[in-house]
Amino acid sequence: MALGNIFNFFVPKDKKFFPLFEQAGSNLIEMAKVLNESVNTTDSQLRKTLAKKIEDLEHRGDDITHQIHLELGKNFITPFDREDIHSLASSLDDVADYIHGASNRMDLYKVENPTQAMKELAELLIEATEHVAKAVYELKDIKNVRNITDSCVRINSVENKADYIFEKAVAELFEFEKDAIILIKHKEILSSMETATDKCEDVSNVLESILVKNA
Amino acid sequence: MALGNIFNFFVPKDKKFFPLFEQAGSNLIEMAKVLNESVNTTDSQLRKTLAKKIEDLEHRGDDITHQIHLELGKNFITPFDREDIHSLASSLDDVADYIHGASNRMDLYKVENPTQAMKELAELLIEATEHVAKAVYELKDIKNVRNITDSCVRINSVENKADYIFEKAVAELFEFEKDAIILIKHKEILSSMETATDKCEDVSNVLESILVKNA
Amino acid sequence: MALGNIFNFFVPKDKKFFPLFEQAGSNLIEMAKVLNESVNTTDSQLRKTLAKKIEDLEHRGDDITHQIHLELGKNFITPFDREDIHSLASSLDDVADYIHGASNRMDLYKVENPTQAMKELAELLIEATEHVAKAVYELKDIKNVRNITDSCVRINSVENKADYIFEKAVAELFEFEKDAIILIKHKEILSSMETATDKCEDVSNVLESILVKNA
């Protein structure tokens, strides 16, 4: 049998890890917002600039992940289990990778007119990353468990919506798009965006796992 | 070095978690059986009804997962590590998601004549979910370790077969299907079915991990 | 709060697990080398022979994984946490699966002329598996933490390169390949190769997680 570890919840005064996780969360919101700007323009020159901006933000995210690793190497005491800090950092990094991937594909595949479904998914990504950032922000105080759980529920609900929009959009491509190559191209871009919300759900899973472990 | 934890195996009298895991297992078998019915009819009206039934079962699965989370919140003592209960519940939920996804795609993409490979994969999914349900059922008694391991081996073997059928079916699509859009459509549906068996293998991995941790 | 476990690092004299992990690492390098040979020939008969060789090596990998599981069943004392040994073995197995998948698809889809991108990805896979093997080899001595971390950084950098080559190759397919079916076929093969490097990154994540847990 296993006992819940009552001594094991968050060091309230941690000044190393929580600020870094907060930065990672804000960075994701910013990436999602730039992606949203990008799917709402038909100016391909502007879209190139925005793609560059997302790439820079992705590198900033990599730096934050790297700093979390460095802190893990330097600190003997951590606010929760070391391997969970590592998992949380990796899962936040994955979200950044897929937002970057979606933006990169739009650029590389020379998409001129982002579709309605791309716009809807980009908006959902803002929502999802906002809940992710909020959950991660609340992680520093045990009294916020309810709030974190609420954010996780919301992330999962956004992911469900994104999945629905993705599947419907692909079905419409099959019904109306006669050019197979354009069909695949659009499907791939929609897929990176949908996977980015999946990765937000993975963050939510890591958070839930941290909560149940320390409940 | 790490010592295997001899004190840490299953509370035999747990009345909270095991019944819920058993329900989740049975629910998966039922989903796979309805999917199998669906690929074996050419009546598209019936297929719509069956898709609705699978959706309802998926919601029932979500409820079970939710109850497991509620029990984790209420119970200080758990039959095995809290985070492993969470992982097991999530992995069972993933299987349901992909069975639902396959059924949903068949409906959305208006597949009229499920192919031989779809029928074979649906049958393998029944087999895989039956082994999953069996393994989860046996989890409540330490004396069943051998049986659980056996089920895991069988799940992996079913997954190998499913992978082989999937790859062969896709190769045949490349060889004989001249309409690229139909090709992609079929490939996507086959892919959700094959991924559903992958997710059964993930359940098997979680179970093996629980076993080695508590061996 | 959680304390890093100073007592918990590697049993230096383990004679069971480390030799098996080393074999798994070497096996991956060999698989990557045969795949590289395969993308560099236009002799389809030779490619069939090499595909068979990769399949045999994949079975050898399965045997090694199986032996690691058997050792876990027999040994009460393990050089690091039992569940981490399980995760590491699984993640190495996944790399083998995707190398085998790439080779299998080239054979099944009757690719006659492997493209430049396939050749570049095959070379990166040799690099990635060499770093994986090196990291796993160094795992037996705590003094090698720096070296393991270095290898992990290199694996991640190879994965980034592979991702870049993959995305660029797919973009070029969209631009120049007018036959949608050939496009999908090539994209699928490139995708298995790129996913094999992703799986090397997963090994690196497992290794990092083991290091932070035992730091």
Task: Set down the secondary structure blueprint.
Three copies of one chain form a homotrimer.
Chain A: E1 2-3, H1 17-39, H2 44-74, E2 77-78, H3 82-108, H4 116-138, H5 145-176, H6 180-214
Helix pairs in contact in A: 1-2, 1-3, 1-4, 2-3, 3-6, 4-5, 4-6, 5-6
Your description of this structure?
The structure is a homotrimer of 215-residue chains. Chain A is an all-alpha fold and 215 residues long. Chain A has one domain: Phosphate transport system protein phou homolog 2, domain 2 (Methane Monooxygenase Hydroxylase, Chain G, domain 1). In chain A, 80% of the residues lie in helices and 2% in strands. Chain A contains six helices and two strands; from the N terminus they run βααβαααα. In chain A, helix 1 packs antiparallel against helix 4 and helix 5 runs antiparallel to helix 6. Chains A and B meet through strand 1, helix 5 and helix 6 of A and helix 2, strand 2, helix 3 and helix 6 of B. Chains A, B, C: Belongs to the UPF0111 family. Chains A, B, C: It comes from Sphingobacterium corticibacter. Chains A, B, C: InterPro entries: PhoU-like_sf, Put_Phosphate_transp_reg, UPF0111_domain.
The amount of beta strand of chain A, in percent, is: under 5%
Shape of chain A: globular
Most residues in contact: chain pair = A-B, 22 and 30 residues
CA distance, first residue to last residue of chain A: 16 Å
- Helicity of chain A, in percent? over 70%
Number of strands of chain A: 2
Low-confidence stretches of chain A: 1-8
Number of separate structural domains of chain A:
1
What's the gyration radius of chain A in Å? 19 Å
CATH class of chain A: Mainly Alpha
What is the CATH architecture annotation of chain A? Answer: Up-down Bundle
Instruction: Give the overall average pLDDT of chain A.
Output: 92
Name given to the CATH homologous superfamily of chain A: Phosphate transport system protein phou homolog 2, domain 2
Query: How is the main sheet of chain A built?
Result: none
Q: What's the helix-strand series of chain A? A: EHHEHHHH
Please state the structural category of chain A.
mainly alpha
Under CATH, the topology of chain A can be stated as Methane Monooxygenase Hydroxylase, Chain G, domain 1
Give me the oligomer status: homotrimer
Number of helices of chain A: 6
